Amino acid sequence: MKGKDISELIPEKRIENVFSEADELCKIIGKSVITVKKKLSKCRR
User: Fold this and answer.
1) E strands in 1-45
2) pTM value?
3) Whole-angstrom Cα distance, residue 16 to residue 45?
4) pLDDT for 5-38, tens place per residue?
5) Distance (Å, rounded) from C-alpha 13 to C-alpha 11?
6) What DSSP state is assigned to residue 10?
7) Which of left, alpha, beta for 11 (phi over 0: left; psi -120 to 50: alpha)?
8) DSSP one-letter string for 3-44
9) Distance between CA atoms of residues 1 and 4, nearest Å
């Protein structure tokens, strides 16, 4: 395993799928954070 990077150990298609899923999860979390901030700002008025 010495001298190999991750792209040599995991198939490219699998890496693409993982990055795509991570991107989607980040978008979902980002939207959730915005929603919570909006609701908190309404409660503080």
Assistant:
1) none
2) 0.68
3) 44
4) 766 788 889 989 999 999 999 999 999 999 999 9
5) 6
6) S
7) beta
8) T--HHHHS-HHHHHHHHHHHHHHHHHHHHHHHHHHHHHHHHT
9) 6
